[in-house]
Amino acid sequence: MQVNDVFNKAREVRPTAITGKETMDELVESAFPAFVGRQVRTAYHLMKRSVTDDNAVFLTMSGAMTPAGLHRSCLVPLIQRGLVDVLTTTGANLYHDAHRVIGHALREVAPDAGDTLLREARIIRIYDIGFDEQVLLDTDVLFARIIATEPFQKAMTTAEFHAELGKAMYAIEQQIGVDQPCLLSAAYQAGVPIFVGAPQDGSIFLNVVKLKALHGDAFKFSLDVARDVFQMAALQWGAQQERDTAIWILGGGVPKNYTLQGEPTLSQILGMEARGFDVDVQFCVDPVDNGALSSCPAGEGHTWGKVTAEAVATSSVYVHCDVTAVLPFLVHGMFAGGLQRPHRRYLDRLADFEKALSHDVEGVREKLLAELDADPIKRSSS
């Protein structure tokens, strides 16, 4: 097909006048024809398609999303409607979510209010969100008391760890009554596994440090990080055998990479024929020009085997924006359209996925061992 033919068949940039009566679907279709607006429109289409095509949806979330309340407006409702199957986030997002459960308030503050004065008043600031230092101290006690209990006295993956935390938080919520479950509790109830790629970089784990210092060897909790990575890879391997997979990336950072690295873990490390994610939707404020993982688009990810070639060509978008300014509109549009599906409950199937991948790796065991015996040093001829 000639370039002119393709061009002449392209959609015309001709928005209609906004009346105030439009649905979110109608508004996105009509009023978002170019620049970041079109990126938003494409993301909306791909997210809806991920659900209607029954893709396994892996969602990643970095940044200070729970202090900003994005989980209350968007993520918890997405989980409750069965639209998210796996979550990867930071320990901080799970920790800060617990403040509200135990009765503390996070308040809007001016980002230029004066940090020296805020420190004197023992008020902690996350850009334009503020809370009293006692909020942290009380939340530390909450998590320390939970993690000191018997169910945690063993080696665990982060998905297993957060499922136990979610179970405990759910019990607390049932006792005190809440208007909405926290993220840990909602994921536990829906069978959504929660992975954290850098658990030691967050206050929940700081309370593990406290308990280890206080109780020494009597405190038996530990994280099995090798099995954690294997479990994420096994989950993606199992999901790929059943359906296409989609990744929705809110921000960048460790959660993004920790999820995407499941694919090279399968292909480069374990010798599997993994195909990568079939849909790739990203929201991030970082410009795509400095090699940072946070701003790595789908095409660059494809060179690592993280995303399929078809996804790069037809099923991916990098939305250059602050996700908190956009996602509520898109979630509203999806819900207004009635999108909902049964919970896939991958949390209940983690052991089966691990067993299946272990069996498949055994099939290439000799090949992997032979590779370890080979000399990896390549000398330049120049």
Describe the structure.
By secondary structure, the chain is an alpha/beta fold. It has a domain at about 30-100 and about 155-175 and about 180-200 and about 225-360: Deoxyhypusine synthase (Deoxyhypusine Synthase), CATH 3.40.910. The protein has 18 helices and eleven strands. The chain has helices at about 5-10, 25-30, 35-50, 70-80, 90-100, 115-120, 135-145, 160-175, 185-190, 205-215, 225-240, 255-260, 260-270, 300, 310-315, 325-335, 350-360, 365-375; strands spanning about 55-60, 85-90, 105-110, 125, 130, 155, 195, 220-225, 245-250, 280-285, 315-320. The strands form three sheets. A six-stranded parallel sheet has the order 7-2-1-9-10-11, sandwiched between helices. It has a three-stranded antiparallel sheet with strand order 3-5-4. Strands 6-8 form a two-stranded parallel sheet. A hairpin with a 2-residue loop joins strand 4 and strand 5 (about 130). Helix 7 packs across helix 10 (about 205-215). The longest helix is centred in the middle third of the chain and has 19 residues, at about 160-175. The chain is globular, with a radius of gyration of 22 Å.
